[in-house]
């Protein structure tokens, strides 16, 4: 480990001591790489700008990720910039490469900062990387405890909802916690884990069974009630109320050879007949129910 740390220090020292490139020299190297795929030119260009990678890596050190990994990802971005750089645009390579280096580091942070993936859109990425800075700035100007107003201001500035700001603030306020991590110890000396405090949104087993039985009973009631309808009424009810995709009045009228207003009248009459049949056969269960 100590040997590896020494290698890293030597690498950083060599990168920081690399000579700066003049504009003409920089452009010549970029042209050699673009036109002739001269790998020596690419190496020289990249080596001269590694200090830029290291400088940008220090800006992201507070995310708790290894500096060596950030530098490595930044180097990938630097090589990507070299592959895309157009020396004919008369723009300094460092100006162009800064964007690619920063983007590469930010993508790495978003992939590895938390086991929960976040910041998939450009607005969410801006929120992730600017929330702390904006919150610190607004804290100096607003009264303590006025967090709701602060979150609203940040949301408007970045272009996200206030709920997104509050959620991101919660995520940034603490590290990930395993569901199997212990939170307390009971009288039996067995550890209580976070997972035991999760609430299951599904119904209880007895409620699920009761709902299944009731659903089956209601289906049978409806099947019996449908026998009071005529053939045309039954077809309209099935296509208008029981099909996955409800047919329109106009389409159904065209198939039956009647107007859409007539379809609506038949449908209303059929629904009323079903209601009366259900109430007559099961008055204590569905009296007054609406279909």
Share of helical residues: 55-70%
Class from secondary-structure proportions: mainly alpha
**If helices are DSSP runs of H or I spanning 4 or more residues, what is the number of helices?**
14
Shape: elongated
Sketch the major β-sheet: 2 strands, antiparallel
The arrangement of helices and strands along the chain is HHHHHHHHHEEHHHHH
Give the uncertain stretches in residue-range form.
Answer: none
What is the CATH topology classification name of the largest domain?
Four Helix Bundle (Hemerythrin (Met), subunit A)
Number of beta strands: 2
The CATH class name of the largest domain reads: Mainly Alpha
CATH A-level architecture of the largest domain: Up-down Bundle
Approximately how much beta-strand content do the residues carry?
under 5%
Strand-helix topology:
Blueprint: H1 2-17, H2 23-36, H3 39-48, H4 50-59, H5 67-84, H6 93-112, H7 122-141, H8 147-158, H9 162-172, E1 182-185, E2 191-193, H10 205-225, H11 231-242, H12 249-256, H13 260-281, H14 283-286
Antiparallel strand pairs: 1-2
Helix pairs in contact: 2-3, 4-5, 4-6, 5-6, 7-8, 7-9, 8-9, 11-13, 12-13
Short recap of the structure:
This protein has 291 residues and is mainly α. The chain is built from 14 helices and two strands. β1 and β2 form a beta hairpin.
């Amino acid at each position: 480990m100590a040997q590896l740390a020494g290698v890293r220090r030597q690498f950083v020292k060599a990168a920081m001591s690399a000579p700066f490139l003049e504009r003409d020299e920089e452009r010549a190297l970029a042209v050699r790489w673009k036109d002739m795929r001269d790998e020596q030119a690419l190496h020289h260009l990249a080596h001269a700008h590694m200090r830029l990678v290291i400088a940008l890596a220090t800006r992201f050190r507070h995310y708790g990720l290894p500096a060596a990994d950030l530098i490595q990802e930044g180097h990938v971005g630097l090589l990507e910039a070299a592959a895309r750089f157009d020396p004919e645009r008369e723009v300094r390579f460092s100006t162009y490469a800064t964007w690619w280096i920063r983007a590469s580091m930010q993508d790495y942070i978003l992939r590895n900062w938390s086991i929960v993936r976040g910041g998939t859109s450009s607005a969410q990425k801006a929120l992730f990387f600017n929330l702390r800075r904006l919150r610190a700035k607004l804290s100096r100007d607003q009264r303590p405890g006025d967090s709701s107003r602060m979150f609203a201001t940040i949301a408007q500035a970045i272009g996200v909802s206030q709920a997104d700001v509050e959620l991101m603030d919660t995520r940034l306020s603490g590290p990930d916690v395993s569901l199997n991590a212990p939170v307390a110890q009971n009288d039996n000396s067995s550890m209580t884990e976070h997972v035991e405090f999760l609430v299951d949104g599904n119904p209880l087993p007895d409620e699920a069974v009761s709902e299944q039985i009731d659903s089956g009973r209601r289906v049978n009631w409806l099947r019996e009630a449908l026998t009071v309808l005529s053939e045309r009424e039954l077809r309209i009810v099935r296509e208008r109320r029981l099909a996955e995709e409800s047919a329109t009045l106009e389409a159904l009228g065209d198939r039956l050879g009647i107007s859409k207003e007539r379809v609506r009248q038949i449908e209303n009459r059929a629904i009323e007949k079903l209601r009366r049949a259900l109430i007559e056969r099961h008055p204590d269960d569905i009296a007054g129910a609406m279909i």
